[in-house]
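Question: does this match?
>
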Amino acid sequence: MAVADQVSFVGASRKLGLSATTVTRTIQSLETTLGLFLFNRTTRSVHLTTEGAEFLSRCRAAISDLDDAVAIARGAGAAEPQGVLSITAPVVFGRLHVLPVVTGLLNSWPKLTVRLFLTDRVVHLVEVEIDLAIRIAPPQDSALKMQKIGEVRKVFVASPAYLAQHKEPQSLEDLAAHSLIDIDECATGHSEWRIGGKNVPSVRISPRLSVNSVDAALAAAKDGLGITRALSYQNHDFIEKGQLRRVLEDIPTSALPVFMLFPSRERQTVNVRMFLTAMKERFMTGNF
């Protein structure tokens, strides 16, 4: 596990406080016992083989279960959160919902320190030394531990001023007659709004405005430019304040799961558990 995490025998030896020779011989002995190679080695790099990646995933699960058993036996479930907890989350979701949880935990636990990394790109948890990640999509990395903490949906919104001047759409086809604001990473000006999964209807749109920022799209909608579509948590506050209003509410949209992922529970188990509990409680408020 250490060699895979560090992508290096030398790095693993430093992490474990062992000599590089000891680490190398231990891996060789394990490979001999298993009858397969766990790593592809070159003079410059060390990478897992396909068999090695599968073996690593099962080792993480086994070690995690063992750590849990030890923690329960020692009564660690009641231990005080302390040390550094590193978290990554999408920018808007992190600002609106992760940051309030973090500040609440910091106010409650004086020995706890948090490093919050907000980005909309997927980061490799081990490479950047992140303890856990919030992701809004089905996770792709089976080697990570994961827990679902809730769901969000994409909804259509427009300002009351815009809707007062234009006939409110009653169907997806009605969108063609409206000014649309699209959130598109490349801001290409042509997009497709898919309402659910692969086998559900979608509508091809030619937006009047394409932006690569959720905040910008919602600001434009709030100013009366037109209709946009964003995740429910992203526009919740605007709707609560009466600055935006939902449209096409009768059209069902698919739910996007919100997962918390972490590479292992070797470190700061109490911190991770405390954060997970707090995030689940926040989802129970229904403000997503």
Q: What stands out?
A: The longest strand covers residues 145-158.
